[in-house]
Amino acid sequence: MPPDVPPPYTALTRHAMLPRAGHDEAARFNFLSNLNRYLAEIGSRGNRAAYNQRVLPRFLEEHGREPEHRYEVRAAMNRDPFHRLWSALKRNSMEMRQQNGRQIVLRQLDEYNALARQYNDGRDTLELDDNVATPAYQNAVDIHCMPGSYHGEEVPGDISAGANYDLGLFATTAGGLGGLSDGGGQALVAWIRRERPEWAPRRILDLGCTVGHNIVPLAQAFPDAEVIAIDAAAPVLRYGHARAQALGVHNIHFVQMNAEDLSRFPDAHFDWVQTTMFLHELSARAMPRILAECHRVLAPGGLVLHLEQPQYADDMPLFEQFLRDWDAWNNNEPFWTAMHGEKLEEIMAQAGFSPDEQFVTGVRAVVDETVFPRASDNGAEDHGRAAVWHAYGAWKKAA
Amino acid sequence: MSESDIDWVARSGKRAKGRRPEYFADPAVDRLTSILMALVGEVSALRERLDTVERLLEAKNAISREDIEAYAPDREAGAERGLATKAFVARVLRAVQQEAEAIEANDPPIEHWVEELGRKEQPCPPTSS
Ligand SMILES: C[S@@+](CC[C@H](N)C(=O)[O-])C[C@H]1O[C@@H](n2cnc3c(N)ncnc32)[C@H](O)[C@@H]1O
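Structure tokens for the assembled complex are given below, as produced in the milestone run.
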């Protein structure tokens, strides 16, 4: 069997808004995607061996019992030299991805800001609102070590955060999300086609759309639907709107809005309310509010779907929970660990969805595997970024 | 391609807000690990550039920097280069990979074997308990 290698960066689909990478800039991403795959493989082997061979035995000796929480596993593993070196390498890979992405974007910023303005100015499909404040939980740290996070600007009114986000997804997923990094959105379309082949939602709401890469496939699959994609951060919306326009997708309205307050929409307004890799970047106070708003704006017979990495069920081994938690502590994802420890079903029940309305299902990224081999074959899952999700959903009972 | 007005080199290296974890007892090791990995990335990019030059020269006699910047490998070349990068990463991180193997193997120190093989008498067979 030939060794499986990630696709080159140049295989990404070059939509007009994707800042062009020079030869060496692309090569740096090629290095990083290979490095990330390598670290996923070595990590899954070495961390497990370190835990079984020396960390757990020492813990048992010191405490006279098994660890009772993933935080205890973490504290013990953080003393292990293999785990420390591996974490340091992985953290560096994240930081290098940011600097490389920013170099590509920032050296061409004026050009792409101007291009975005051509796509954005005067369009009623982009609505920005200066009164929308950055939520406090978005401001605590720069999420996944992105300098400036989603809302930072290098020059007023720019697209830098969005552009850097879009072009760097490739490196951390080793191409596993496809040419437009939209494997998640494609998976949603494939899933709904199987689940409800005849269904055509009229109004779709996407919360925390970032650059809209995962909502574009949905908008394309339902061209007659009115799609509203909201985010609290203006720079990613500017970029996302221009990107959708550049791809010829015109039925998405990008709106700057805080998802905690959807009062602008009447009750039962949407047939489909979607979040994709969104809930884990909120806070314990914001999440239930947002899930309740999702219930309120959803029409009877409608679908709510939250795509996330799997929750830490009671039967998930603590060591696996610890591995899945890496990004919380090492990649500036502070709500990741608390969120994954929640029983989402219970919070959705409090939000108004009865247990028989709810379901959980697995969704795997759909990508052209002739160009983009899957992100994690051979069992070495890179937990923060694996192209496999769990969907926590509900079909709201018809009234 | 026009350069933007901001100092993009300085701005690109901006620190992400949030205190960075310390991975090693000596902070200098944290810094040196970062420097080393940046350098490793540059060597990888340099190798890839050389590969591009070679492939372009195979196809024609004279090439320009523009040709290099515009080069995008086809599927076969992309896979060959991906494999070369994968092998490069494996060489650089051999120490990490072999430590993982060593933890699994849990070998005794070499002193054990030196003593064992230097002994003239048969060691007593371990008493079965
Ligand atoms: C991890 S990203 C979501 C990624 C994206 N949905 C995808 O498909 O990959 C989280 C996004 O949520 C936005 N966000 C966070 N809190 C929000 C809030 N309260 N209201 C609206 N957007 C919010 C952030 O600005 C960021 O763009």
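Residues 27-59 of chain B form the longest helix (33 residues). Residues 23-91 of chain B form one domain. Further analysis is deferred to the final report.
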